[in-house]
Amino acid sequence: ETGVTQSPTHLIKTRGQQVTLRCSSQSGHNTVSWYQQALGQGPQFIFQYYREEENGRGNFPPRFSGLQFPNYSSELNVNALELDDSALYLCASSLLGAPDTEAFFGQGTRLTVV
Amino acid sequence: EDKVVQSPLSLVVHEGDTVTLNCSYEVTNFRSLLWYKQEKKAPTFLFMLTSSGIEKKSGRLSSILDKKELFSILNITATQTGDSAIYLCAVVPSRGSTLGRLYFGRGTQLTVWP
């Protein structure tokens, strides 16, 4: 089991609402990436945070936003939820600047939008 | 456009069988390829491959990369029911692009019957 923790584990929201998902990175890691995994698909990169700033973004609209805190934990915020936002949201922590290293994933948050 | 394609998407075998999972990729400035096992939520790291022709092994699992033909295979010998999972292949672009971003394939759903 990795040291990456996500909360909550499950969440049900109504279309149009806003949601905040949280991620605590593994000790010693300074980078957090967020992924969306729809049913039957591989994880899709949303964005990455390093030193509290966005360090790359995938093909997601601006209503997907994030934060990273000084302790390297991170939040993913999604506004104006749509039915298609229903997915498993994964957070991965890694160490930027280290030699090639794997990303460690949290258990994910299963978001259902109804 | 960067792309990772896995095949087959689904595979059903019996315990004791040997399976080969495939991953082909088209990624600008390739840096490394990662294999993950996803049983319920969190993908767990299996292998990182950076050099062609060097086999990585862990117990009954092994993997190899061909950077000329742009593919990797993951072999599982003497499969067990505990090997049932989704196997994800991800490619990491080199430094200079979005650092740490993983491009995932859709995964191969492996089911091992007793």
Characterization of the model:
The complex is a heterodimer of chains A (114) and B (114). Chain A has 114 residues and is mostly beta strands. Chain A has no helices and eleven strands. Chain A has strands spanning 5-7, 10-13, 19-24, 31-37, 44-50, 53-57, 64-68, 74-78, 87-94, 104-105, 109-113. In chain A, a hairpin with a 5-residue loop joins strand 7 and strand 8. In chain A, 38% of the residues are buried. By secondary structure, chain B is mainly beta. Chain B is 0% helix and 58% strand. Chain B contains no helices and eleven strands. In chain B, strands 2, 4, 5, 9, 10 and 11 form a six-stranded mixed beta sheet that branches. Chain B has a five-stranded antiparallel beta sheet with strand order 1-3-8-7-6, with no helix packed on it. In chain B, a hairpin with a 4-residue loop joins strand 4 (30-38) and strand 5. The N and C termini of chain B lie far apart (41 Å). The mean pLDDT of chain B is 91. Chain A binds chain B through residues 2, 4, 31, 33, 35, 40-45, 48, 50, 55-58, 88, 90, 92, 94, 96, 100-108, 110, and chain B through 4, 6, 31-32, 34, 36, 41-45, 48, 50, 88, 90, 92, 98-107.
Characteristics of this structure?
heterodimer, A: 114 residues, mainly beta, 7-stranded mixed sheet, 4-stranded antiparallel sheet, B: 114 residues, 6-stranded mixed sheet, 5-stranded antiparallel sheet, 0% helix, globular
Fraction in helix of chain A: under 10%
Number of helices of chain A: 0
What is the strand tally of chain A? 11
Mean residue pLDDT of chain B: 91
Low confidence ranges of chain B: none
Major sheet characteristics of chain A = 7 strands, mixed
User: What's the rounded overall pLDDT mean of chain A?
Assistant: 91
Distance between the termini of chain B: 41 Å
Characterize the overall form of chain A.
Answer: globular
Strand content of chain A: over 45%
Topology as H/E string of chain A? EEEEEEEEEEE
Segments of chain A where pLDDT lies below 50 for 5+ residues? none
Question: How many helices of chain B in DSSP terms?
Answer: 0
The string of secondary-structure elements of chain B, in order, is EEEEEEEEEEE
Q: What structural class do helix, strand and pairing data of chain A support? A: mainly beta
Oligomer: heterodimer
Largest interface: A-B, 32 and 26 residues
Shape of chain B: globular
